[in-house]
Amino acid sequence: MSAVSTLIYPVTDLATAKAVFTALLHTEPHTDEAYYVGYSVDGQEIALDPNGHRKGLTGATPYWPVDDLEGALAALVEAGATVRQPATAVGGGRTVAVLADADGNMVGLMQG
């Protein structure tokens, strides 16, 4: 398993969040769409998702890259995690899922 590759923040005010993160990261977003604003900082993806709260995200969510999303999802559920967002194709050949640990901390999985 690799280190966290993506960190996604659910936001309700995308324009304000984009202004804050642009100032914080000292860079313009590489993707600036109504459904996703993404920044690349030293190989790390930092993103804003205006639909994140609707998807069940309660805070910033780290996404771990995995080769077998379904297998990793099953292993984490067996270990006690709860699925918050089932495996979902998000475009570009990428599939993601989000779970919560016993304390409600978000754990994202990303394949592709």
Description:
- Helices cover 20% and strands 43% of the residues.
- It is α+β, with helices and mostly antiparallel strands and 112 residues long.
- The radius of gyration is 14 Å and the shape is globular.
- Strands 2-3-4-1-5-8-7-6 form an 8-stranded mixed beta sheet, covered by helices on one side.
Question: How would you describe this structure in keywords?
Answer:
single chain, 112 residues, eight-stranded mixed beta sheet, globular
Summarize the structure.
With 112 residues, the protein is an alpha+beta fold. It contains two helices and eight strands. A hairpin with a 5-residue loop joins strand 7 (94-100) and strand 8.
The overall average pLDDT, rounded, is 95
Main β-sheet description: 8 strands, mixed
**Can you tell me the residue ranges where pLDDT is under 50 for at least 5 consecutive residues?**
none
Envelope shape: globular
What is the number of helices? 2
The proportion of strand residues reads 35-45%
The sequence of SSEs as H and E is EHEEEEHEEE
Number of beta-strand segments:
8
The class by helix and strand makeup works out as alpha+beta
Q: Kindly report how far apart the N and C termini lie.
A: 14 Å
Rounded to the nearest angstrom, the radius of gyration is 14 Å
- Helix content range of the residues, please? 10-25%
Q: What topology, given as strand order, has the largest sheet?
A: 2-3-4-1-5-8-7-6
